[in-house]
Amino acid sequence: MDLKQLNAFIAVADLRSFSAAATKTGLSQPSLSRLLKQLETDMGVVLIDRYHRPLHLTEAGAFFYDKISTILTEIDTVTSMTQRLSAPSSVLNIGFVPSVLYGLLPEIIATLKQSNPDIEVNLKDISSYQQMDALKSGEIDIGFGRFAHQDAWIQQILLRHERYVVALPKAHPLAHVREQRLIDLANNRLILYHQTHLPVLTTTASTLTADTGSSTVNANSEQPPLNEPITEPLLHLFAQYGISPFMTTTVSDLQVALGLVAAGEGITLVPASLQTVRTEQISYQRLVHENVTSPIFLHTLKDFVHPKIPDLLVAIYHVYEQRGITYRQQKFVSEP
């Protein structure tokens, strides 16, 4: 059993086609078939049912695929990390969720470049969970996200909590009320935009998220049954106060949600940094609930910290100090 055989099996299992797998791997179909047959002979197990189209995994093949794909992913991660450790790139690749870009990220990058004139920075719009794979593959070196993660390869620090505000159409009766309560908003259509839901019901309001990776629009107005956990972040937020919105609509991302608010189709809650968007059509007002916040996390690998990340943290905390933002200074464990 060797890596070529395993990669051949994974390609066929993923694509359920020898021709498609041959194209993906750059091998000829006879070579691919031979590698797979050698693997099955070495194991004494049939992994692929070749008599169906598309190809099917046998029960043993499905079990083997589930286990070996995780191992191969780890091998790829270790290989990538080893290469980066031996020859660190001078470029700092930063992933971010869109809601962070509307906040202090541009100012932080400007501060970083001012103190490091020779630094090269690449920014990539990528959701919090996608950042985990991007860190492992080397696509990014660090990521700004809104979700806490449990991953053996990743370490994270909490930068700060950002308060939510309510976004209302300018013509809304509550548009000029400076201090809003969730109970007073319950009779409105609440526009939901999160693409990732909370993992468990026990997550507190102070760790609600604002990840805004995009996908296709999926509108609906159904509430989950009362006996099921409420994991959609905004609905969960209302539920913490024993409130259920009158009606909801789910859209693809935060920008679409704000577009619907501007059109008078409902209200939504967003991190305070978004309150500069569409201000001619939207009124943003504070919530009286001080613990209703959205966290901002910084993620990187546990075993490899890009040499420019300490400089990035210095820039972040400098901006926080200039803006009078409360924070607790932290650093990643493998920093010098």
TrEMBL record:
The keyword Amino-acid biosynthesis does not apply. It holds the Pfam family LysR_substrate. Residues 1-58 form the HTH lysR-type domain. The keyword Transport does not apply. Gene3D superfamilies: Periplasmic binding protein-like II, Winged helix-like DNA-binding domain superfamily/Winged helix DNA-binding domain. Keywords: DNA-binding, Transcription, Transcription regulation. Belongs to the LysR transcriptional regulatory family. This is LysR family transcriptional regulator. It comes from Psychrobacter glaciei. The gene is benM.
